[in-house]
Amino acid sequence: MAGEKVKTGIPKRRAGSREKKDWVAAYIFIAPVTLGLIVFYIWPFIQNVWFSFNEVSKFNVATFVGLQNYIDIFKDSEVWRTFGNTLKYVIFTVPIGIFLSIFLAALLNSKIRGTSIYRTLYFLPSVTMAAAVSMVWKWIYNEKMGILNSVIKGLGGEGHGWLTNGTTALYMIMLVGIWMTVGYNMIILLAGMQGISRSYYEAASIDGAGTFAQFFKITIPMLTPTIFFVLITSIISGFQVFDVIYMMIGKTNPAYENTQTVVMLFYRQAFDYGHKGYAAAISILIFAVIMLVTVIQMVGQKKWVNYE
Amino acid sequence: MRKNLKKLAALGLAFVMGAALLAGCESSGGGDSSSSGGKTKLTLGIWDENQRPAMEALVEAYEAENEDVTVEIQLTPYKGSEYWTKLEASATGGKAPDVFWLNVLHVDSYVDGGILADLTDAIADSDIPDNYSETLIDNYVRDGVNYAVPKDFDTNALWYNKEIFDAAGVDYPTDDMDYEDLKALALELQAAGLDDGVYPFACPVDFQTWYYQTVYANGGWILNDDATETGYGEAKTQEGIQCWIDLIEAGLSPKASALAETTADAMFSGGQLAMNFAGSYMVPEYAGNDAIADKVDCVEIPTFNGVEDNCINGLGYAVYEGSKNKDAAIEFAIWLGSEEAMKIQGETGVVISARTDAQKYFAEANPDYNLAAYTNHADEAYPLPVCLKAAELYDLESTWLTKAYTGEMTLEDACKELKTEADALLAK
């Protein structure tokens, strides 16, 4: 009761009008970014949802078809095959990628000579265009003249069509995917590690904990919020893998069917075949799956993520 | 006071940024045509950098004759469907180029989308019907309506590397060969012993330059006239494909998987193929490649069972239905098909001009090669099968045929599956 009285006092009204002014200014400040977000993300997203209930021709003439696109998706074996490939990609690249990133971050967090050189080196793939990276790796893997086969042959082994064999192609692509993302995740994890207070380690040292015990008992638990962030973003980008595969696998590649991801299928349907409505429905499905996985993680995180 | 000043400055900055953002949108629109200062402005949409000089020469000549018209060339790369994606987006927004290149493969969907202007009367009033082969004009006719002026066409030829033939002591290919002669020649090269990694010939999974030619020459078919059924199940169709798989199995061509990584063109350019099929659009690439330019030449595509077999594809100039200067655009498109324009294009030697009397310029511009091989039988060449779902059909075809080329399935089984899926696609 007493609190209410204070709130209705004169000073409050003044604060209110000043607050209002601040709000207006704040809105104007964020306007450029928000406008961009609305024009380039939110409006297309809404349009996309609408498209998914329509049959849309190449020239954006939409005819309402209700749920037909979604019904077609469930009957389309290609959707399921490409989702299978995508899932495989996520299941392999995310854990391996995060494990490697933590490992590298821990190494670079120690006091060795030239850490900044190593940090730059590991981060380089992340600032290189995916298209350029893919072209280089495509040559490395080339059956006839790739450096990988040259090395294997030099060691007395036999060459292999890494990207043209249905059983190996997707794993070879995963390797490139991991190589490209490890540096970025490493930098984030490194920042997380450096944010852990020294006093924990000092206390642990006094208690006689060794380097490994410190790493598993202090670093990892304190790092879980960062690991969680990296996990979420890695899974999302894993589900959206496109450019590397688009650049590395041609349509006459015998491993074509084994390497097509769901975003590749979306791209083909929308831009090669002109089925924009169907493609929109596929993209909504991808969105739903990613959201579901993220929600599950958000719920699950309470069990393992440690907020000081 | 000072605080307000800061706020004001930041606000101003925000506005500038916002304005820049909007300005960015504005300028990327492009393709807009308008009449300003009494001059009619037209845009010409193209995709090939190699042909930019030819197009610039055409624009210059046209502007000299028509002082009230200016033409701007708008180049968008073909790779990764970028050209089509942009064209479709700009047509949706009402801002497509007034005149643009259109290839045979895209005619159906663009007619369907209603963005192509009707050129029937303009073409009938010009000298085009008398000076172009009917096949080429009809490539752009749907339901009796002309939608484009033929620009150029491409056919195929057999290229060979003289150095490899000399080293093996085998005679060069000739214009009068048939498929069996080609195979015999390849076997002869193989027997003579080629360097490690060098092959006599290559058979990639390629429809236009390889198997459609033999499929049609053999009396097979791919798509029926009303695009309701595919002919992959026919024995005659399969024979025209099997003949290339046979060459792979005989070790005369690299495996299909190897060709998926390193294209036949790349291998030929790298001196790793004694012979290769190549479309006329490859000529500037070969002629401009110092490593092989002096060592290669070409002859006509070998006949199959005594039948001339070449596939013809090409492109034309189409006019955008929504153009603000449609009449001027149509006039320009018709002029691009005139004797004068076709000569200017032909003399650059980059493509084969579609006009009958201008075809010779292609061979004349590159006298070092036997380029008449491309035009000698162009009138007998087969046009590509096209329909509204062509892009999907070709993808299905390459997916299934790749399985037959790699030996994963027999051709008969692959064609059976392919026919089922392709017919279902057409029925949709």
From TrEMBL, chain A:
GO cellular component terms, semicolon-separated: plasma membrane
One Pfam family of this chain: BPD_transp_1
Domain ABC transmembrane type-1: 83-297
Alphabetical list of InterPro entries matching this protein: ABC_transporter_permease, MetI-like, MetI-like_sf
Compartments in which it is found: Cell membrane
Keyword line: Cell membrane, Membrane, Transmembrane, Transmembrane helix, Transport
Membrane-spanning segments: 23-43, 89-108, 120-140, 169-191, 227-249, 278-299
GO biological process, alphabetically ordered: transmembrane transport
Principal location listed in the UniProt entry: membrane
Membrane topology designation: Multi-pass membrane protein
Family designation: Belongs to the binding-protein-dependent transport system permease family.
The protein's name: Sugar ABC transporter permease
Species whose genome carries this gene: Extibacter muris
Organism lineage string: Bacteria, Bacillati, Bacillota, Clostridia, Lachnospirales
Automatic annotation (TrEMBL), chain B:
Database matches in Pfam families: SBP_bac_1
Gene Ontology cellular component annotations, sorted alphabetically: ATP-binding cassette (ABC) transporter complex, substrate-binding subunit-containing
A biological-process GO annotation: maltose transport
Keywords: Signal, Transport
Record GO terms (molecular function): maltose binding
Signal peptide coordinates: 1-22
Keyword Transcription: no
Keyword Signal: yes
Family: Belongs to the bacterial solute-binding protein 1 family.
Protein name per its UniProtKB record: Sugar ABC transporter substrate-binding protein
Organism in which the protein naturally occurs: Extibacter muris
